[in-house]
Amino acid sequence: MATTADMRNGLIIKLDGNLYSVVEFGQNKTARAAAKVWAKLKGVDNNRSIEHTWNSGDNIFPVRVERRNYQFLYKDDAGFNLMDNNTFEQIVLSENMIERPELYKDGQECFVVFNTETEVPMGVELPPNVTLMVTYSEPGVKGDTATRAMKAATLETGATVMVPLFVNADELIRIDSKTGAYIERVKS
User: Fold this and answer.
1) Are 161 and 150 in contact (CB under 8 A)?
2) Cα–Cα dist 40/109, whole Å
């Protein structure tokens, strides 16, 4: 049994019969009342996002999950086709189970999160950052680097991200897979 003291980002808990992932949490302390623990929760088995508050020390019900290495093969009408890197078994998951589907390219390494009690896939995550090729970007003009101005760039997956003015087409860039934001240019 776990308590609110065990709360952390990414923890998957069962609440009112549904599974939720903790996105953010914190504690409210006042002089007259007992401390409260609040959390922003994102539905794992549904598309709801909620906020919930517990008294400090209340019981929570975490779900044991396992992250397994998979490889994204391709996307078709059935969904996203993934292959287990150890057993070479293939599974097909719908797009709503995929985190940031616009950043997936063929052969991309990813992690499928399984509920260990039921062996049912709960979602797919990318590594913390991914490296992608810029296929189209307006050329930067010399002297435009005085400010932190950004421009739109189209990636090899079709996604559009905001990048600094010095990034050009046919360059590799690193993207934060959680936020979809530009991190840095990759030296080739």
Assistant:
1) no
2) 28
- Return d(Cα 165, Cα 60) in angstroms, integer: 47
Contact of 44 with 21, CB cutoff 8 Å: yes
Contacts of 31 (CB under 8 A, 6+ apart): none
DSSP string, 126-163: --SEEEEEEEEEPPPPTTTTSS--EEEEEETTS-EEEE
Task: Tell which CATH classification among 3.40.50.150, 3.40.190.10, 1.25.40.10, 2.30.30.30 matches the domain 2-60.
Answer: 2.30.30.30
Provide the pLDDT confidence category of residue 10 given band limits of 50, 70 and 90.
confident
Classify domain 65-125 at the CATH topology level. Answer: OB fold (Dihydrolipoamide Acetyltransferase, E2P) (2.40.50)
* 148 phi, psi to nearest 5 deg: -90, 50
Residues 6+ apart with CB under 8 A from 80: 72, 92, 93, 94, 95, 97, 98, 101, 104, 124
pLDDT number for residue 81: 95
Enumerate the β-bridge partners of residue 121: 114
- pTM score of the predicted model: 0.76
- Tell me how far apart the alpha carbons of residues 156 and 107 are, in angstroms, rounded to a whole number: 13
Which of these, 9, 12, 8, lies nearest to 21 by C-alpha position?
12
Under 8 Å between Cβ of 159 and 176: no
